[in-house]
Design goal:
Blueprint: H1 2-31, H2 42-65, H3 70-84, H4 107-142, H5 147-183, H6 193-197, H7 202-213, H8 215-231
Organism: Caenorhabditis remanei
Protein name: Seven TM Receptor
Keywords: Membrane, Transmembrane, Transmembrane helix
Length: about 240
Amino acid sequence: MLIGLVVYAGFYVLVVAFIAVQFVFRYVVLIYPDWVKKFEGMGVLAWGSYPFWVGLFNGFAIFWFAYPDEFGDEYMRSEIFEVYNLDITKVPRILIIPYDANESIRWFNTLYLLTGAFTLLSQYFIIIYCGIKMHSQMNKELLKFSIPNRKLQQQFFKALVVQIIVPTIIFVFPSTPLLLGPLLNLKMSIQSGGVCALLSLYPPIDSIVFMLIVTEYRKIFTKKCATKTHSLPSHYMTV
């Protein structure tokens, strides 16, 4: 089960890294269309694997730097029992406790906070940089496209913006107090399972966003639904 927590931590950052790659791709399509070939052939594997490497790095970092130890178990033992009525040694856990009993820094846990923050913020830097560049150059660059393609590019940009807002709201904002609280020596007692459960909301929301904003996706989805509806028999016969 500890591996499950590590995988979750990896997917947490993988989602944002995947959106960062999409921003880079839309940025290249809009500003440097000749570079699109870099996303073809082996480029697909390279760019497609980037989010997985980022997620793997974050998962390895939290496993290495936040692996349970005796001090962490003793520190959290009473809290786990009071909140969950469970023995901490029987619970899969990742503990981030930046300070010891003497208020000295526990460097392993602190290094994960720094590493995790750098990993996540670097993805947001890519997203914000590409987003600002696309927004500032969009009107000029879109003149090179046909009117239908121009409209499609604008819809893709809007969809990407919404795509990064959604995981920021349901992943990053709820988890920020949980990660920064120990570093700031803030005491809190809440059940954090709801934050983990929010990860399951992302796939359907992501698909719905694209279908609502990008008309081509919406047309294809509507056509598929209509085809399935028409293929159903209008009556049944039994012998």
